[in-house]
Amino acid sequence: MSSSPAILAVITARGGSKGLPGKNIKVLMGRPLIAHTIDAARNSRLLTHTIVSTDDPDIARVAKEWGGAVPFMRPAELARDTTPHLPVMQHAVSFMEEAIGAPFEYVVILQPTSPFRTAEDIDGTVQKLIETGADSAVSIVQVSSGEHPIKMKKLEGDRVLHYAIPEPEGTRRQEFPPAYKRSGAVYAMKRNTLMKEGKLYGAHVAGYVVPKERSIDIDDEFDWIRAEYMVKKMEARGESV
Q1: pLDDT in tens, 142-152
Q2: 65 and 117, same structural domain?
Q3: Strand partners of residue 190
Q4: DSSP-derived 3-state class of residue 195
Q5: Which of 28, 126, 210, 213 has CA atoms 20 to 30 A from the CA of 139?
Q6: Are residues 153 and 216 in the same domain?
Q7: What is the C-alpha separation between 37 and 175, in angstroms, rounded?
Q8: pTM score, two decimals?
Q9: Angle between helices 33-42 and 119-132 (to 10 degrees)
């Protein structure tokens, strides 16, 4: 493996959001939402190429205004509500490899809905992938006791049953073992896992832990309110936003 592997980051920004219309270009902290992801990618030490994949002319225009590269408009058949990330990423990789005339070694998905993600989060996740030799690596965040899988239940009729892990009776929340979930900020994978195996994750997935305050994933109006609250807290602490 070369000392500086070719790594493509794709900022996936489909138009037509139902949960929060226009969210990818909605202004947060004085910049469109997508601009925060463009900035984080540009500040990465490891990414060699970063592009925006979108079907929306307004998103493309705003992305370009904020320094993003938009080398193509995503085909309509890859921009439906039900379209998964796999074919979107395969299309982007194929386009870019043909454009530069060489293959990538690693590929990264960056969604605009994680505005507090940093370049360090990106590089940390990618470095974890490279160092472990895993098929993929994802940013993860520790869940609070209220969201712990021990407390997750399901209903069958009127019976409350354990969803996954039985809850030991009388166990205090402080005694719950650490549990994590995907933060939504960074998804990195080997190029061949994506293009040859047709998978985003593969058999071996490594995790890179990021702090909770950088793990807001905006999907709807409530998430946006949480993000605005986080901005106010950061400003009150004198932190850069």
Answers
A1: 998 778 888 88
A2: yes
A3: 106
A4: helix
A5: 28
A6: no
A7: 36
A8: 0.90
A9: 50
CATH number for position 118: 3.90.550.10
Contacts of 13 (CB under 8 A, 6+ apart): 24, 34, 52, 53, 54, 56, 59, 63, 111, 112
* AA identity, residue 74: R
Same domain assignment for residues 172 and 226: no
Least confident of 39-53, 55-69, 146-160: 146-160
CA gap 110, 117 in Å, rounded: 9
Q: Indicate if 11 and 128 belong to the same structural domain.
A: yes
| Residue ranges of E strands in 169-241 | 180-190, 205-209
CA distance 116 to 43: 14
Domain containing residue 158: 144-178
